[in-house]
Amino acid sequence: MTAPHRSTQRIEAYGVRLRPFRLDDVEDVAAGCADPLTQHFLDGLPDPYTEADARLWITEGAPAAFAGGGAAYAVADPTTDRLLGTVGLSHVVPQRGQAEIGYWVAPWARGRGVATAATRALSEHAFATGTARLELLTRVENTASQRVALAAGFRPEGVRRAALAVRGGGRRDRMVWVRLADDPPGPAERPLPDLPDGRLTDGLVVLRRLGPDDNEQMYRLHSDPEVVASRVPPEAPTRDEIERRCHGAESQWLVGTAAAMTILDAASGEFAGSCMLLPDQPASGQAMLGYSLLPGWRGRGYATRAVRLLARWGFDHVGLSRLWAGTLPENAASQRVLQKAGFRREGLLRGRLPGAAGSRADSTVYGLLTTDPLG
To answer: Where is the N-acetyltransferase domain (predicted)?
Structure first.
């Protein structure tokens, strides 16, 4: 980084104003930082957060950020100049031309694109003044912030395990999002788009994104003996594993790792099972799919309907060219599902899967091309 940021400089772009904090921001800073959602994701804030804390930040904390080569701007409405949140640069490494960008948005300003606008504005200012690389760190479950990162042109780069201590003890992972000075402008590309209107349906079955509220149903599903037998390896997951899977499902979707969905009965809304699309060869337009149903919903065509919906979405919206699925050779029910959905048997892979007690299991492979008719 070549030139230090100046606390007196204003930046106006994308419908927001970045300006220095003022003492008349005290009440709004205190209200924004005392908000439960802000407190939940920013463990370093005092709790409770008072107007005295806000005054200390405005008079000492923000100026110190600029003095250290970073930045701490109030994000304000360009018409009223009322505070909407804050955005800043920290953990500056001058010799690497690197800094970390962070923000929070006040409750009265959420849902208006304020965080994205402020992040874009400060990022461009940082790049124009010599920064080469910006990092943005989020919790795995903070998908709202991850959507901001993507919209502001940041790309996922990985996870830093136990990167930050949290209030009350313990440590949490942080996802790392990065934008470089020479990255193309605009939002970062998403390999897996959101579902149209948040769901897929054929009138009888509904598919929607897996989420934290599905913990108990997913644990019940993956504790079923038949489902366990088809897992790789064939072992029942723990509750903690299921909870992590449900809480991390949207994040995995956003980075393009997997699209995990629940299968629901359209009439009652009851949980029937789950399915997943996993892009295992993105460069060649290929993805794997899988599915499981609770015992009470089997034999009623729900799995076939779910596979058809998933396949259509994969071809029409994700842009895939090929889908495949594998089953154990003895799993005749799953093979019938795939055949009814239009998949063709392509062969047997010997010893492909880890089995019980260190053994290996064969896998029967089925494939579906975008040019194939759906069953």
So the answer is: 16-183, 205-372
